[in-house]
Amino acid sequence: MSPAGPDSPRHGAAPVPRPGDRAPDLVLPDQYGEPTSLAEAVQDRAALLVFFPFAFSAICTGELLEVQLDIDRFSNDRVQVHGISCDSTYALRVWAAQEGYRFPLLSDFWPHGEVCRAFGVLDEESGHPVRGTFLVGTDQKVIWSLVHGPEEERPIGLLHEAVALL
């Protein structure tokens, strides 16, 4: 965990799920409006959930572009990436097209931040998620997690190490 961990006042009431905990279920629309369920997503392979504050922001764009550049390591027969923010599906669709993302971007727009809150990564004061990353196994249990504040970049190497656990 990072300085913006589960006991930080920025986070919602729910604690950040730790390795071994069952991940909260989620059903969110992707950038095309198609519903995505965590339970369905992890039926055949693990899910790397990458919560990010804002589409089109510099740090978020840089992080997700790094994931995109290594997409074969992050989305393969063992794991699938899912980006999650409180942006609307429309904003996520335009951003994904502009940046060429080849993984689903899920919208926690309404009810606003409900899934982010369930994962303990919603900054209640600003209404956007902090940089939470969770690797969830096919049993829907958290294998690995990392939480950073909104201004701190995720070290891409740590994501590689997490996916190597599979």
Automatic annotation (TrEMBL):
Transmembrane parts of this sequence: none
Gene3D superfamilies for this protein: Glutaredoxin (3.40.30.10)
Pfam families for this protein: AhpC-TSA
Keyword Oxidoreductase attached: yes
Record GO terms (molecular function): peroxidase activity
Domain Thioredoxin: residue ranges: 17-166
Keywords: Antioxidant, Oxidoreductase, Peroxidase, Redox-active center
Superkingdom assignment: Bacteria
The keyword Nucleus appears for this protein: no
Catalytic residue list: C60 (cysteine sulfenic acid (-soh) intermediate)
Annotated spans, Disordered: 1-30
PANTHER family linked: THIOL PEROXIDASE
Name of the protein this chain belongs to: Peroxiredoxin (Alkyl hydroperoxide reductase subunit C)
